Request: fold
Amino acid sequence: MTVEQQTTPLRVHSVGSRLDRVDGIEKVTGRATYAVEHGESAGIVDPLHVWLVQSTVARGRVVGVDSRAALAHPDVVGVVDHTSSPRLADTDNGELAILQDAEVHFRGQIVALVLAETPEAAREGAALVEVSYDEEPHEAELREDNATHRPDSVNPDMDTDTDEGDVDAALADAAIVVEQSYRTAYEHNNPLEPHATTAWWTEEDGRDVLSMFDSSQGVHGVVQALAPMLALDPDQVRVRAPYVGGGFGSKGEAHAHVMAAALAARTTGGRPVRLAVTRQQMFALTGYRTATISHLRLGADADGRLTAIEHRVQEQTSRVREFAEQTGSPARMMYAAPHRRTSHRLAVLDVAVPSWMRAPGEMPGMYAHEVAMDELAVSCGVDPIELRIRNEPDTDPETGKPFNDRRLPDCLRRGAERFGWSSRPSEPRATRDGEWWVGTGVASATYPAMRMPGNAARVSALDGGRYAVGIGCVDIGTGARTVLTQIAADALGVPPDHVDLDIADTRLPPASVAGGSSGTSSWGSAIVAAAQRFRADHGDRPDAGVETTASAAADPAAEEYAFHSFGAVFAEARVHRWTGEIRVPRLLGAYSVGRVVNPVTARSQLVGGLVMGLSAGLFEESWRDPRFGHVVTQDLATYHVASHADVLDVDAEWLDEADELFTPMGSRGIGEIGIVGTAAAVANATHHATGVRVRSIPITADRFLE
Amino acid sequence: MEATIHLTVDGTDRSVDVDTRTTLLDALRERVGVTSPKKGCDHGQCGSCTVLLDGRRHLTCLAIAVAYDGAEIVTADGLGGADLHPVQQAFLDHDGFQCGYCTPGQVCSAVGAIDEAKQGRPSHVTDDLEADVQLTDDEIRERMSGNLCRCGAYPGILAAVREAAQG
Reply:
């Protein structure tokens, strides 16, 4: 039974200090087992291999699946298509409801599955399946003239549009107006571990049970998505994810391949199946960030004080399942301006389903907003840091609530001091070092602090003063396994090595997704609640075997405040005067994120976000061919992500603080904010270096040669 | 078409039946059950599958297993014997990883890169091709650039390789 417990602030001992990753040795040796690496010790005996057959048209109907040649292959065991697939009880989720009808919604959709004794035979078998189509006209290009659909809400459940005051009148009266459009590219998350699932069906007590090892950011979420579609009760599906090789949002929800593994395994008479999505297939099947077009209008007085902010967003969704990125959302709360308007309009395309990618909304939205702010600073002749400080709001512009600790100015000043901002020439194109133009740029970062409902933790007393702590959350590389051990230790008042933490299994108490920078806040609060309740119920010397399961009660006082993290990102850019080559020798983020639970894992997460922001600013761009509807840059040779040689001096630091109104640990979450504003800081630095304003990312060498 | 090859994997002799199309990576992962080398791209673009093959770092996804009959393979799991290899300890000390998926490849690549520098092999950023190679930060970054890390742990990896190379 789960009880609700009001938490009190944690007395910190281990929290706030370095603890090496508790799973580090497993990772540096490769002994950590990811989703399709489980063998006989985990009950995976003699697995079959599944290969996906994908549509080669962007829209139409499958009129025939000829599997005779595939089935003639000696090692191919079976082919599943829409005529032979097990039926689903619920097909509302158009992304997951695969192989239920002949419709093709996008190029790359799963149209058949091949099961074979070896990976080589499965792949060859997939190539032997002949699929014929009735092709229909499709639309796969995002343009300003077709992004006109107004969604009912934007991710996760925000208002589509907002309109306060009179933006048009304020702009008409403004001394200075910045009016520009900014674009961000299609981006694919590309965690280094491709999505993968091991699945098998058994019968337990006369009921079907589906078991999975899945590369997922939230095992309970996989059960919630799949169980009703398969007409199973939640306890008939067990999902585990002991190790996950990154996700960055793309493993936040189950994608079609997870259902493919479940359906394929249904046909094998109990034999397990392994389904490893290839890097190429990921570009069609496992989510991506929509390209965005941001139309910004900023109105300000001569001193740069904003009177109006308008952020109109155009982006895309897929016809088969809607996802609307909340790109305009940061403009609603970032700066003080009495007149503000935001909107989101979508092109509804016959394309793969877009989804979460690190800081959905804030990443593309703050890129556009913060480059516009840099343009405003230039127009007003005001230092970019001073401009931002002048526009600090007294209360949250969106809700009217007071912020609990809005320390953006502290981040800007502290970062500026360390970065050496004061020696920066105010004019662009003022510094040349040999053949390189040199400049610096700054941008603000923000991310909302979120605590998710539906979390509980279990604390059990073991022998010898040790405790078992269980919660069904996932460590996707963030360090959750380590920091939750620290939180549990402090909550129980024992050293971390007295805690046996068990995670990543739906047999454990429920946990929300590792996403939205909400993990530590949500899971940690549940652990503190369970530990405090455990002590209240069982005292300091409990008998071995006693246990308590609890969730954290909401703090009514917290309803009075707006909780956001803030940061300031500083970049130095060098642009080669003849080739346009761009290098970023220095990148620094200064953050206000509440208490940092573990300085080592926190630094790695913040630096990792900065690196991904740098990568977005300079490299990442997926190219969809509108004639055929697919992404042609579908590997890591053509979709460039930052490599060792691209990442020079990158560092992060944070303010010494604790937000105990938000969580008992005082933490607010750090996973996303490192990517927010980073591309803008890089863009602004390239402008300061060269005087050339590039209004799209990635910023490439050719843009400085035009 | 099947063939039988012999490999020494982390000190253990293995006789492996492979399809003639089987990569060395799939032979290790799917047929021997050694999953320390990871499959991140299967196209030689990410470095996650790096092992030491006959003493040199090598991408196993671009190697066809039948061509390596008799090879000696050391994965990250076999580098240190019962203990950790100094490079692995340095990765732990500098938090040179997050999710851990690219890490066995990074570790093997770092061991290989440090050895190549000791042998005086130049890289793209080596100025003096005649002199001994100094593993500067730029040299380390260049030599490790075949190993992608999407978690962005590059600064930690750099610090780890720098320390291990000096040790």
Q: What stands out?
A: The domain at 2-32+451-557 of chain A is CATH 3.30.365.10 (Aldehyde Oxidoreductase; domain 4).
